[in-house]
Amino acid sequence: MENLEISLKQNFGDFPKRKTNSTTLKKLPDFEEQLLKTEKSENGKSCECDIPPAIGQAIIQQQLRMDLVLSEKSTMALELKSRKEENEFLAIEVQKLKDERQQILSVVSEYQHEVKDANGKNALTDAHPKHRLQNARFRCAGHGKKKGSFCFNLSKDKRSWEAAEQRCNRQGGSLAVIKDEDTMLYITNLIRGSSYDTSYWVGLSLDKESDRLSWVDNTTVTESSFQNWYGEIRPTRSERCIQSAGLQFGYKWYPSKCDREFRYICQV
């Protein structure tokens, strides 16, 4: 290394010494900071300039993303609160159903024991009343309303009389059978209190061959049977299916063609 330096000096002479100024070195950071804030114009002078558009746009987009995140966070918090409240409500409903199921099992068990004691065997007979089962507390499926040992459900869709009966059969029941004034009053209140105060098919029809008026449980309607006709109107072979009318016909029975589509009342 020393030989190289001697050779260079012989050929080029001594190198000029670099002058250093401590004051200049101290100002370098200030100069670098100034470069971030200023920009040279065409005439060589420095001027204060606005934030470049690209950086400004990036800042705006970042702020928008932040606002969106905060909004989503707030929405998720509200949804979580709603889900918690819903779960609490469902837990209460499940407990109610469990309690009612236990009550039903208790009533049935007690009823079976009473029958067994009365007859010496585990069988149901007509000699024992069924009021315990009829008065048992249980819920009807869907929006059904309980009366005695039956649930009555007003449909939301419309069908012909025969299609309505088939629909009720699939639910384990039939179109409503109304054999007394008390049941009729109950049905009337159901229709009056529903969202659709209109006509509903019931399980009464006239046989087109025999002119026999009967319920779907094969019970014949006679002169001594309970009847609730609108005025003097009666079913005929052309209008042989019966509807329980709404307010328009005073909640009375009214015959109509069986292929017409009305709402219907299922009894399960």
Automatic annotation (TrEMBL):
Record Pfam families: Lectin_C
Gene3D superfamilies for the chain: Mannose-Binding Protein A, subunit A (3.10.100.10)
Q: Which UniProt keywords apply?
A: Coiled coil
Q: Where is the C-type lectin domain?
A: 147-267
Highest rank taxon of the organism? Eukaryota
Which InterPro entries does the entry mention?
A: C-type_lectin-like, C-type_lectin-like/link_sf, Ca-Dep_Lectins_ImmuneDev, CTDL_fold
Q: Which residues form a coiled coil?
A: 80-114
Please report the name of this protein according to its UniProt entry.
Oidioi.mRNA.OKI2018_I69.XSR.g16861.t1.cds
Which source organism? Oikopleura dioica (Tunicate)
